[in-house]
Structure formats: C-alpha cells, structure tokens
Amino acid sequence: MARKQPELEIDLRLRLRRGEDIAMGPGKADLLEAIAAAGSISGGARKMGMSYRRAWLLVETMNRAFGQPLVRAKTGGNSGGGAEVTEIGLAAVEAYRRLQREALRVVERGLPGLKRKLGKSRSSL
Amino acid sequence: MARKQPELEIDLRLRLRRGEDIAMGPGKADLLEAIAAAGSISGGARKMGMSYRRAWLLVETMNRAFGQPLVRAKTGGNSGGGAEVTEIGLAAVEAYRRLQREALRVVERGLPGLKRKLGKSRSSL
Questions:
Q1: Can you tell me the distance from the alpha carbon of B72 to that of B61, in angstroms, rounded to the nearest whole number?
Q2: Closest alpha carbon within chain B to A110
Q3: ipTM, 2 decimals?
Q4: How far apart are CA B110 and CA A99, in angstroms?
Q5: Strands, E, within A44-118: which ranges?
Q6: What pLDDT digit, counting tens, does each position of A25-48 carry?
Q7: Minimal Cα–Cα distance from A9 to chain B, Å?
Q8: For the segment A82-106, what is each residue's pLDDT rounded down to a tens digit?
Q9: Cβ separation of B17 and A11 shorter than 8 Å?
Q10: If you measure CA to CA, which chain A residue comes closest to B99?
Q11: Around Cβ A123, how many Cβ atoms within 10 Å?
C-alpha cells in the first residue's frame, strides 16, 4: 500500500548531569572523540564547528563534573598545545554511547507495538 | 565517606518524530494530560502556563503527525468550546510514557557500572 507519510522515528537524547553541570551528552561525547582524533582542543573544536573557547568550556565542565580530567594537556614531545583524552575520558564516552544504544534498542523494540495500537484505524502508521 | 558532589543523574528525553514534526515528546504528553484533566484546550494550556495559541498549534501538530485526532472538540452537551483527548490520544500518551520508563530503566541499570569504571581513582562518583 502507498505510504503517504514518513515513518515514526525515535529521537532519544541521553544526558548525564551532576547538579547543574551536564557531565556527558551527545555534543560532549562528539567533542571528546573529535579532540581524541585531532590531538588538540583547537583541532577538535574546528572539527565540531565551534569556537576554541566553547570547546574549552565544555571540557572544563566535563572535568569538573567527573571530578577528574577527561582531557588534559599532552606532556612531553614538541606538539606545543596538544591535548589528549584520558583513559577515563575514553571510558566515559564508550560507556555513554553504550547506555544510549541500549536505551534506543529498548524503544525500538517497543515502537512496533505502539504503531499497532495507534494504527488500528490507519494503515500509514 | 563524605560526598562533596551531587550524584550523577540521568536525563533522558524521548521524542517521536514524523518527518519534521515532533509527534510526541515530554511537553506534548504533559499537554495531552492537562487537556484531558481540564476538558478543554484552553484549560490545558492554562495548566501548562502556555498560550492557547501555542497549545492549539501543538495539538494540530500531533493530530497531523499521527494522521488522526488525538484531541477533538467535545460534541453535544453545553460545554461550548470543550475538547477531549481521544482514545488514540490516551493510548499514545500511555505508550509514550511506557517507552520512556523502559528506556530510563535500562540506563539506570547500566549507570552503576559506569560509575564503577570511572570511579576507580575517585570515591565521589
């Protein structure tokens, strides 16, 4: 049968808060990965299309919220100004992504039931 | 041991989209319940602290996104201008709340593992 409307889609956003701070969310996870790939906060910021200042503030918020550095200045070498994502930072991103995936999977499993329930009188749902 | 920081908390927001429209989300679910309780769109809007126009637009978006009315004018009686949440509307809210709860439960189950992983070197997480 012809489908007139696009499908119902799931939009699930997970954030971890500590008090007023967002410790981890979609944007911060992306930023950490961008910093890890670029090897610097400025490179990560560029990749994300955000200012260095904004990236730096997000990093500062994460470091404070987790009570330990997720990103820190690279020591040694001659990279001057480089930064690296710490083991804790990588673990935090990985765990966050996993929680998000698991939550999404649960909703995806439940969605057909919702569509069936709502679609009794309509075939387009 | 003394806890210096508030706990890590989960902030999970589920939305169902159809194309550009948000078919259902936290605000729309609250609004539907407020309309159901008040018996009118204007009463529901008041309860939500939003304008009638905004509530009406949200209702219109939902009705369009689900392809059938979730809210409709009350027929008969002398209530003049009253509105009711349809069976489909009630089912949609109920199913949405359930999906949200189930997703939250999954994340809540996973959070202690994340805290343990991150907390190896810190006791405050």
A1: 13
A2: B99
A3: 0.82
A4: 7
A5: 71-73, 83-85
A6: 999 999 999 999 999 999 999 999
A7: 5
A8: 999 999 999 999 999 999 999 999 9
A9: yes
A10: A107
A11: 11
